[in-house]
Every structure is written in structure tokens, then in C-alpha cells.
Amino acid sequence: MTRNRFIDLPLAAVAMLVYVSLYLPILLIFLLSFFSMRRGKVNWDTFSLSWYAKLLENDALGGALWNSLLVGSLAVTAAAAFATSAAILVRSRPDSHSARLLEYVIFLPFLLPPIITGLSLLIYFREAGVGRGILTITVGHTLFVSAIIYRIVLTRLNALSRNLVEAALDLGATRIQTFRFIILPNLRMPLLTGGLLAFALSFDETMITLFLSGTDATLPVRLYAMMRVGFTPTINALVTLILGFSILLTVAVALAWRRNADSARMTSGEGRT
Amino acid sequence: MDAPDTDSRHEVAGDRTPLLRIRGLGVRFQDFEAIRPLDLDVLNGEFLTVLGPSGSGKTTLLRTIAGFQQPTAGRIEFDGRDIADVPINRRPFNTVFQDYALFPHLTVRENVAFGLRVRGIARATRDARVEDALGIVELEDLGDRYPAQLSGGQQQRTALARAMICEPRLILLDEPLAALDATLRRQMQKFLKVVQRRSGITFVFVTHDQSEAITVSDRICVMRSGSIEQIGTPRDLYYRPRSRFVAAFFGASNILEPCRIESTGEDTTMVSTPFGTIRVDGPPPRVREGLALAVRPEALVPAAGDACNRIECEVVSVSFVGSETITELEHSRTRHVLTMKTRSDPSTRQPVVGSRLEVGFDAAACALVKGARE
Which of A99, A250, B265, B285 is most deeply buried (CB count within 10 A of its CB)? Predict the structure, then answer.
């Protein structure tokens, strides 16, 4: 197919339009966190970090950030343990009905509208008499991100020879030694990749968290609350910081993903010299 | 299939004690009988090959011995002790897997050391034994490589060293050469044989390749649809097959049937076949019904005036395949087909297609076997 200028140009224009409409608002927020704006024009002389300074003064935000990091770490740890056990179970008996069922149960919270997950958990916790707080948010996030880690871990397990476990047992290893020396080392990269991805999801999660947070708000929930009171330029600074952190996480995930793929290739023996 | 079992038992005995006694062992998957109850003795220090086409139950038999598969009937005794309740990781044998199952995140050295590591052997002892094992399989220089950086043959030798490190009494090998190319396969066959001889470890080796089985084995156990068809030395199976199946599997592709015994003597039997009456040397057959006569293609010789069995044929086709020439013949009267394999020789003329040819074979070069109807 030869390239046609009459098609290429309009295509490029559409692509540009998409990118501009996607990224211009973000760019604007980024600029507004440093500069002030008058009559639709950025005033370049007004560079200041005052909005960031204001953020530091705001203790509630510091608490929210801490909550986000805490919930993220707890949820990723719990989800990793749960998803890994589930993946090993499903891998060991791929044809059983209960394994299929387990898989559905893991994927469901990820596919359900977050508002449903959030609402049902809220009702459940209320009936069970569990007060809303870090614990309830962590449970919600664990349910939500388990599917991600499960999928990545299972993909790697499927690439490993099923005989590895038999070989380890055959050589005299106990079940626990087999897990510790053979399975776990091969899951290091998938767990890192899945964990980072799950952390990024947990860090951004708003809808489920809204239902489950009492006074312990996470960063997105705090941001949401701030906007209801009134739109202040501190929000721009906060959004810019969250954005920066999310970009860092995304880059980390991308790098981990590449190393994960490399080690998977080693595992399946394609990298043979 | 009933007659030969009594006989295979007495072959098994002798002065060597069995390391492994398998009695009435059966494996059933729902409604599929993978192994029909069978008896097998594995002698101490022998190289026993379990040979059979795919689906014959040979790998299931190996996996049951290793402990990966639970038998549904019978028992396995090791050194006179029933091992039904011994879990995989406590059985005194090790396995070489078809895909080697090397641990991808460990180096060659760490792979080989694994069996010692999980047993808590001290590092100094461990290192020395690993170096010894690497020396045996000639991998001293590749100890720090990862499995993915090895060739197929090197991976194979790593798997062997790993299985030998704990000094098992028995090593089970599940088609370990299947993934290698023909040249490497032949090298590895010799290598396995040498390692087995030197170490004195009993090998139970599974393959579907009869020429491989003949090359490496002390004894061969031929399996077919979950049962043992015949056990014996490679020469036994090659020259004295007991069934049409074993005969064909070992290349005796000329099966003359139906056969009827005309008379039996001390050491010869006269058999009437579609090709006429044939003299067969050897002890008289134990059964007289349902027999077939197996003749190896290389036993046939053209224009053999002095051979005791002669058949008048017509040449159907001649193919020159290098060191050998393969001639398809048709019996002049009954149109039955025979195959003759002769050494190619530049000085003699090839048979002409369509011409008449009298072929002969020796009375010792054929075997009476169980026929198709069993």
C-alpha cells in the first residue's frame, strides 16, 4: 500500500486533535500550579511555588497521602498473597469446576461497576458492625486489585513447565521447599510488575473508597472533597503532584513489564544460544 | 494373549535379585485402563527399556513407579519393601524428564546441587559432589550457565547429573532423547550406556524407538495397550519375537499367515503357509493354533539354490537406498507380497521389475509367532 498524502494529512490532524484535547487540560493544570492566569492568558512573570507551600501547610492532605500509601501497601500485600495462592491452585487443577469458579470470583470485583462493589461492601460492613476506616478501604482495594496480580502470576505459572514441581519433589524437596526454592523465585518479576500496577490502581481508586472511607480519606477522596468546597489553586498543585507520582509508577510498571517479559523468555527456553 | 507370560517370568529370575518387584500393578483413569494388571521385575544394576508405541502405557508405568501416579491395583516393592505409602520425595529413585524440567532460575551447578541442598548437606560436601557429577557428564566448564543458555544435549546431561547426585539406586528416564536430533541422539545413547555401566545404577528407560532400545538396553520390555507383550534381551526380541506385534515392531515385516503346523520334530517344524511349506528351526511351538510366520527382510536372499526354504516370486519394485536395496516381491501363485532387503553391491545386477525371481531363506531365520487373532 502506497502512502497517500490526502489520507495521511487528515489522519494526522485528527490524531493531533485527540492528543490536544486529552493533554491540554492536564498541561493547563500543570502551568496553573506555578503561574497565575488573567483573561485566558498565562502570566509568565508570576512564577511561584506558593501553592505547593500551601499544600504542605495543609495537615489533612498529609494525612490523606499517608492513608493512600498505607492502603496501597496493605492491599497489594494482601492481594499478592491471595492471588498467588489462587493462581497456584488453578494451575494445579486447570480442568476442575471449582478452579473455574474461583477465577470468576477473583475477576468479578474488577469487572463490576465500582459503585456496586463500593455500595455492597458498605452495606455488608454496616450489617457486620465494622466501622469505616483504613481496614474497610483496604478490603475494598484488595478485592479490586487481586484480579490484576492473579492474571500476571497465572500467565507466568502457565509458562513454567509443570514438571518443575514434580522434579523438585522427585529430588527430595518438601512441598514448602518446592514453593520457596522453585515457585517463588520464578514469580519475583510477575509479583513486582503486578504489585506496581495494583498499587497504581489503588492509589487512583476513588469510587469504592468514597463508600468505605469514614474520616480516614485517601488522597483522591480528599481531592474530591476539596473541590466540593470550592476550586482553589492548591488543587492544581495537588493534581500536578498526583500526576507526577502516577507517571513515575507507570514508568516503573513499564520497565518491570519489560524485565518480566525477558525473564519469561528465559524460562520458556526461547533465549537458547 | 495368554501363553507367553509364564515364560517371561522364568526369564526374569536367574541369579540376580530384583531391585524392583511389580505385582499386579494396574492404573485406571475413569473408564480407561492405562495399565492392565501386570508383573515386572527390574534387576539390580540392569539397563531396562520399556518400549512401546504412544498410548501403550509406558510413561504411565514410569510415573507410577516414580510416585507421580497412584496405582489403582497391585503393588510395587523396592528391595523387598512395599513402597505404596512412601511419598515421592522419600522414594530412593530419581527421574530424568522428557522436557528435562531444569529449574530456569538456577545455574547448572545449582540445579545439580538441588537434591543435596534440600537434604541439608553441608556446603563443602555439596560442592565437591556437584563437581564430581559435572565431571561425569562433562559439564565442568558450563557450571555457571543458566539452562536457557545450554544446547539440548547439555540440558540433557544437566538433568542426568541432577538425577544422579543423590546416588539413587534407580534412575527413571522418560524419553529423555526424544527432543534431540539424530546425531546427538546416537551420541547420547552411547553416553547413557557408559554412565550406567560405570555408576552401576539401575536404569529404567522409556522410549518408542526400537533401534534406540536395542542400542542401550540389557533387557527390553515391550508394551502394547497397557500390557507387557514380551520381555527379553535385544537379541531375543529381534530374532525370537513371540507375537506378530513384536516381530513387526522390530522390523520383521514379512508376516506369513495363516499358518498351519504340518509336523513337528525335535528341532524343526514344518509349517504350511500361503507360500508353500516352510521349514522352521528351533523348539516346537507351545500352541498350534493362530500362528503366523515372521521373516526378516534381510533374511531373504535372491536365487539361493541351496537355501532350504524357497519361494517363486515376481519382482514388483526395486528401490536403491544407499547401502541397501529394497525389493518388493509378489508370490507367483497367491499374489501375497514379500519385502527383501539386500546389501547393495556395485558388481551385481539389480533385479529387473516384472522378472521372475526365486528367493530363499534359512530355516533358522524365521520365527513362529502369535498371529493377528489373539
Answer: B285
Q: Are B276 and B311 in contact (CB under 8 A)?
A: yes
Q: Which domain holds residue B351?
A: 246-370
Q: Are strands B170-174 and B93-96 parallel, antiparallel or unpaired?
A: parallel
In 3D space, the residue among A146, A245, A241, A156 whose CA is nearest the CA of residue A200 turns out to be A245
Interval B201-242: pLDDT, tens: 999 999 999 999 999 999 999 999 999 999 999 998 998 898
Backbone angles phi, psi at A41, to 5 degrees: -125, 135
CATH number of B199's domain: 3.40.50.300
**B144 CB near a chain A CB, below 8 Å?**
no
Domain boundaries, chain A: 50-267
CA A239 to CA A245: how far, in whole Å? Answer: 10
Q: Domains in chain B: how many in total? A: 2
Kindly write down the DSSP assignment for every residue of A18-63, as one continuous string.
HHHHHHHHHHHHHHHTTSEEETTEEEGGG---HHHHHHHH-HHHHH
- What pLDDT, in 10s, does the model give residues A100-144? 898 899 999 889 999 999 999 999 999 999 889 899 999 999 999
In terms of domains, do B257 and B208 share one? no
CATH code at position B346: 2.40.50.140
b/e per residue A218-236 (b: at least 16 CB within 10 A): bbbbbbeebeeeeeebbbb
Indicate if ipTM > 0.90: no
B89 has a chain A CB within 8 A of its CB: yes
pLDDT (tens digit per residue) in B169-190: 999 999 999 888 888 899 999 9
Extract the C-alpha cell encoding A240: 500536578
- C-alpha distances in angstroms, A224 versus A30, A66, A219? 18, 17, 9
Tell me which residue of A149, A259, A251 sits closest to A202, measured CA to CA: A149
Cβ-based contacts of A270 with chain B (< 8 Å): 148
Report domain A50-267's class: mainly alpha
Contacts of B90 in chain A (CB under 8 A): 172
DSSP string, A204-264: H--HHHHHH-SS---HHHHHHHHHHH---HHHHHHHHHHHHHHHHHHHHHHHHHHHHHHHH
- With contacts defined as CB-CB under 8 Å, which chain B residues touch A272? 148-151
Residue B337, classed as helix, strand or coil, is strand
Residue A164 half-sphere exposure toward CB, CA atoms < 13 A:
27
Q: How many CA atoms lie within 13 A of B18 on its CB side?
A: 20
CA torsion B27-B33-B34-B39 (nearest 10°) is 60
- Find the helix or strand (DSSP H, E) in which A106 lies: helix A97-111
Which chain A positions have a beta carbon within 8 Å of B148's beta carbon? 265-267, 269-272
φ/ψ of B230, rounded to 5, equals: -165, 145
Return the closest-CA partner of residue A250 out of A187, A190, A193, A188. A193
Q: Does A269 touch chain B (CB under 8 A)?
A: yes
The domain boundary, picked from B245, B275, B298, lies at B245
On whether any CB of chain A is under 8 Å from the CB of B101, the answer is yes
Q: Which three cell numbers stand for residue B348?
A: 551385481
What is the C-alpha separation between B159 and B180, in angstroms, rounded? 14
Q: Specify the 3-state DSSP secondary structure of B353.
A: coil
Q: What stretch of H or E contains B244?
A: helix B244-249
**Cα separation, B93 vs B202, whole angstroms:** 10
Same domain, B302 and B351: yes
CB contact under 8 A, B105 and A185: yes
Q: Report the residue of chain B nearest A188, measured CA to CA.
A: B105
Distance CA A143, CA A177 (A): 29
Clarify whether residues B235 and B256 are in a common domain. Answer: no
